[in-house]
Amino acid sequence: MGKYRKGVFIVTYRKEKGKIWYLLLKRKLHWKGWEFPKGGAENNESLKQTAIRELKEETGQEVKSVKSYPIKGKYRYDKEYEDRKGFIGQTYQLFSAEVKSKSVTFDKHEHSGYKWLEFDKAFSILTFPDKKVCLNYVNKALIK
Asked: Which of the four, 1, 74, 92, 136, has the lowest number of CB atoms within 10 Å?
């Protein structure tokens, strides 16, 4: 039995002219497809600290506000990865982060591009069902 890496999913959004725009990143490291920023906890940082750090590392964005949600899950990796030795998968807690700017500086090692999309389009291109569940949950919370 292997260990799961502790991590976060971060549904990242900005508000502009009465609309909510979600940030999706085009993944190229370990698999190909669309996702929102995510990552694993380092040392003794809290999951909220992980969310803020990962967002900055993966997008260059500063957080305007961050919120956690009672959505948690886990997934298995399809194989053991060199940069994740000893882990068979990752757990996650859902966070949302509002950012001020639409300017994104993505990590070219992990991603090949990004898009700001409204909910329906973002939902339709997300690669994995667990991420669709998370986006739907945050969107419902934001439009209340």
From this structure: 1
